[in-house]
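Discussion board: Methods & Data

I've been asked by a reviewer to show the raw model output for two of the constructs in my manuscript, not just the figures. I'm not sure how much to include, so I'm pasting the format here to get opinions. Each protein appears as its amino acid sequence followed by a line of C-alpha cells. Is this the kind of thing reviewers expect to see in a supplement, or should I convert it first? Here is construct A:
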Amino acid sequence: MRFQLIAARTAFAALLLAVLAGSCAVGLVRLGLLTDKGGRALMIPATGLGLIALALALLWLRSALARNQGEGKRMGLIALVGSLVFLYPPLSYVYCGYSELPIHDATTDPEDPPQFVALAKIHPANSRVFDGTRRIPYQGVDARYKGQDVTVAYALHDKYPTLTKPHAGLLVSPQKAYWRCFQRVKNLGWTLVDASEKDMRIEATDKSFWFGRISDIVIRVRPAGAIGSRVDVRSESRDGGKDHGRNAARIKEFFLQLKL
C-alpha cells in the first residue's frame, strides 16, 4: 500500500519537474534568452524526468491492478497520461532524426530547385545553394540502401516520390495557379515575404511549433503544356544540419491544401 502511494506521488512530482524544465526550455528559446542548441540540451533532462515519471506511473498501475486498490489513483493517472503526452514530442523528434533524411533543404525539383530572391538577402547559417550532388548517408526504416551514401537529389526522389514526380501539374493557367498558391500560403498561416506575379514566385517563412525554428519557403509556378502549369516548392531551414523531416512535411501539407 505504501509503495503504491509513494510511486504515484513520485511519478507526479517527476512529471511536474519535467513539464517545468520543458516549459523553461521552450519559453527561454522563444524569448531569445537561450539558443536553440541550449534549448535542446535542456530538453534532455526534461525528457529523462518524463521517462522516470512514466516508469513510476507504470509501477503504480501494476501495483494497483495486482492489489485491486486505488491508493494514489488521481496522481498516478495524471502521471501516467501526462507523461505519455509530454514524451510524445521529444521522442518523436528523436525518431524522426533517425528515420528522415539528414538534410535541411527539401524541394520538389532537386535538379532545378526554385531560387530565393527576396529571402536571399538574409544570410542564415545554412547555405542558400541547393546542392543536389552532395552525398549523404541514406538512413531510416524505409531506406532501400541503408548505410550507403547517395546524392541528396537521389535520396529526395527515392524517399519522397510523391513530392518530386511531376504530380504538381495543374490544368489551369499559371496565373490562376499562382493565385491559388498565394491563397494557400495565407491559409497555412505562413508569413508572406514577397510575391511577384510577374516572376510567378512567392516567398514566405514558417516557424516550428515548439522552438520557433524558422524555415524559408519559395514557390515557383511555370507553364506546363498548352494550358496547364507546374508548381514547385522549396523549404529550407535557416540553421541546423538536420530538419528531422519538417521541410518535406511542410511541402506535403502545402500540396494537400493546394488540392482542396
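Construct B, same format:
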Amino acid sequence: MKSMNLLIGAIVITLLIACGCRDVIGDGTQPQSIVQPPSEGSKIVVTEPAYGTIFNPGDTIVIRWVAPTIESINLQLFRKSNYKITLVENIQNEGFFIWRIPTNFTFSHHYRIKIISNRNINIYEFSEQFGIL
C-alpha cells in the first residue's frame, strides 16, 4: 500500500511539472499575465544616484532616469520626506541632468531626488537615498 501511495504521488508530481498545475487541477485556463503592465506611477525609473552614494558639497553629480513616454520633467530635492528645493523645471526629458551641489548644504544621508512629469504631477518617482556630507 505504501509503495502504491508513493507511485501515485510521483505520477501527480510528474503531471504537475509536465503539464502545469492549472491543466491538472485547475480549470485549464491560462492567467491573464504574470507580469503586470506598468501603472501610471511607475512610468519613471530613477537609476542614479544609487542608494548610499555619498557626495560632497560642491560636487557635480549626474541624475539619471528612464521615462520613455514623458516629454518634459521637473526635478526636486527632498531630505527625508521634506521638500528642500526645485533643481529644475520643465526641461526636455533627456534621461539625465547634471547638478552641482551647493556648498552650503546640510549634511545628511537622507536626500532623495523626485522626478515628476511636467504634464501630470501624479506621475513621479523618487531616487534611492543618498548622502551629502
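Answer (T.O., handling editor elsewhere):
This is acceptable in a supplement if you add a one-line summary per construct. For B, something like: Residues 2-19 form the longest helix (18 residues).
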